[in-house]
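>> received
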Amino acid sequence: MADKTEAEGNGASAADTTTTHEDGLIDFPFKLESQCLLLPHYADCSKVGYVLEGRAVVGVILPGETKERAVLIKKGDVITVPKETYTWWYNDGDTDFSIIYLGDGAAGLTQGLITYFLVAGQAAVYNGLSTDFLAKASGVSQEAAAKLFSSQAGIQIIKPEKKLCVKTHDRDRHGIVLHEDSARFSNHVPCGGHVVSMTKDNLAALEGRFRFSINITKLEPNAMRVPGFFPDIQLVYITRGSGQVQISGVNGATIMDKEVAAGCVFVVQKFYVMAAVAGSEGLEWFSIITSERPIFHPVVGKTSPLSLTNADVLEASLGVTSDLLKLVRAHGNSHDVIVAAPK
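>> returned
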């Protein structure tokens, strides 16, 4: 079932609107109502999810593993779901569960879309096989096989008649789930904000299964992420707050200059320079970058060309006086990735 998750009644609902971006990258929000179950399935694309609200129990069988993991995920958790992985999702809470997925649809059956393969319900892969084959494979009678594979009337999402009891284990989170507050900051500025990078070093499932890493940036009110670039494509989803984002491209062309708020999605092309200033409530984003170990290159700040280039060369290149350059370097050398709000 490609790129589609439907509400099915009995209180079950989900929202799944996939948007395709450059290089086959995709984003799609997903919402699951209280006590609803997304049936077991696998997919043809790898994705990572950031929990926006609520909680859910997720069953995970990774490729090559012979035991199911059961993990409880909550707001602020990041979960990795490689392609081929069997999962099911159950909202055992009292409120909606909401998550944003960013993923790689470049190599899917249909480029830029995710295709789900159900292993339960009316759209399950079993329905394309004969009862005779299923009975032989399962070691049961044809009557039992028909009952086993045809009893569920739901398609993708159901609301079970009774609450499901699933025991979760913190140890099962290892390598596949990491809370944003548990990851080491790659950059932190008091009263300015911080940056968290998630790679195969702290999320083992990323190794060999994903062509991207994860970046979470949080800016305090009125703070700034300095202008800079990644030599890789970055897909950005604004999770909280608001602010102004500017992107500069080839020959200094303005690619983007707009106010952003929670729910906004945009792409920063490789080598394009992005800068952001948070509004009065701060600005936060969840993103993926098409590199296993991305390197951020500031174009302003203490490790930028404005600070490191030979002074005489830079004065001549910019056409400015040495006094102005000294002033810029005196102030610019106090920050690198994040600039705290003026006091």
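>> The domain at 183-296 is CATH 2.60.120.10 (Jelly Rolls).
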